[in-house]
Amino acid sequence: MNLIKDFAHRWKMKRQAQDAIEQDFLGWLLTSEKKAILPFKWGVMVTAMCFWIISRRSTVSMTSVIEVNGLFLLYFAATFVESFFLRFKRIKITQIRWITTASYFADFLFILGLNHFALQYSQTAEKNSSPIFLLLFFLLILRGMTIFRTTKSSFSANVLTGTIASIFVITSRLKIADMLTPVDIASLLFIALVVAGTWFISGVILSQKEELMLAREKIARNENLAVIGQLASGMAHEINNPLGIIHGYAEYLLMKNPMDENREDYEKILKETKRCKVIVGELLSQVRVRPLLFERFDILALLKECMENAAKSYTTDKPDLSISVNGGKEEAIIVYADKTRLHKALSNISINAASAAPQTNGRITGNIAVVNNGADISIRIWDNGDTISDSVAAKAFDPFFTQKEKGTGLGLWIAFEAVRMHNGTISLNNAPQGGVEVVIQIPREQPEKSQKD
Q1: Quick one: which of 358, 342, 351, 330 has its CA closest to 419?
Q2: pLDDT in tens, 301-324
């Protein structure tokens, strides 16, 4: 039964992660279609129409003219409908995939149809529509590099497109001639080179897309932190003073009437005002950023101290909670950093890990390793509690985000800020062996002038 529940939970988290990735991709696809693909499509269609009008021979029958003009009219209508939906009508993000896929096939059919008519109505085997066909083929390849989510899928689609296009060029030419012309051979070589190049180009495009998404997330995070800073500055006077008055009156009532029947209510007021003052104090400590105070210390001993204190705070609820730091090894790992800030960061992460560990057979482990030829240190704190979804992991370091009933949502944010000020990185992920792992990497030596503000 537990195995089924675990499988269902993992399947649900996987679907949530896939949905988040799909949403990001569709947003990028919508932008690409509106700003790049649609203008290019209209330009290609006008170019093809001009090419047809200029190259049309007097021997072409009126029936043929009507057929080609009908093809242009159908493609114009399809492109107009796509432009209307993408630019002037609000559509759901989930509908983007259907619209772009239908447009992709419309482009493919238009290219094949136009090339068919152009070759069918050529008067000699030496004259063909290779220039315009290659331009239209490039449009289809470009669409293949944007509509698919992975480099492999994009390349596979373009290989299929290139194969069909090559077969079409060969069979169309052999219908009106006994052999391929040099222009046809050059066209086939061009198709092969373009298809081969899409592997590299698609990788670059998708890589740039991911970098843009990360930059957008970083900007959004910085904006959130700026808002929190402004909020905390105002809270110093607007909330802290009234809290002090409430706290003082509650203490006065308890001292004046120790046997009062409302004593339990006064104690609750004291407890909650203390909690609010802690939140305000933590916010103010982040806003009033003091310079980092560097010193040399053993970070392995610091991590062990933080994890032991976290385990002790859960002695009552989780008496068998076990901890392990570097497999019991006591070899010192000396770093040059701000000990106070890293102590706060590691304490918050250790408390979170102890809180997430199960009540029975709970385990939290910490490991520190020297990486990058001694330049950096990597800190990993793991617990054997429940795994988390990707959406939760993405928000874990945001201020005020918490899944605890009485949590403030500031612990991981404070840890994130401490690591950032040390020019490091921090991430929270599901561990391969189950549970959740926080990974921190910071430089082992911290030049005082390079600290981030």
Answers
A1: 342
A2: 999 999 998 888 887 788 788 888
